[in-house]
Amino acid sequence: MTQPRTSSRQADFRVYLGSTLLFIYIVFSTLIVGVAILGGFFLPFPMRYKIADIWIDCLLFMLKLCCGLSYEVEGLENIPRDSAAIILSKHQSAWETVALRQFIFPQTAVLKKSLLQIPFGGWALATLKPIAIDRQNQKEALKMLIDQGIQRLQEGLFVVVFPEGTRVAPGAHKKFNAGGAMLAQKSGFPVIPLAHNAGEYWPRNSFLKYPGVIKVKIGPVISSIDKKSKDINAEAEAWINKAMLEIDAERMAG
Question: Phospholipid/glycerol acyltransferase domain: from which residue to which, for each copy (predicted)?
Answer without folding.
Answer: 85-199
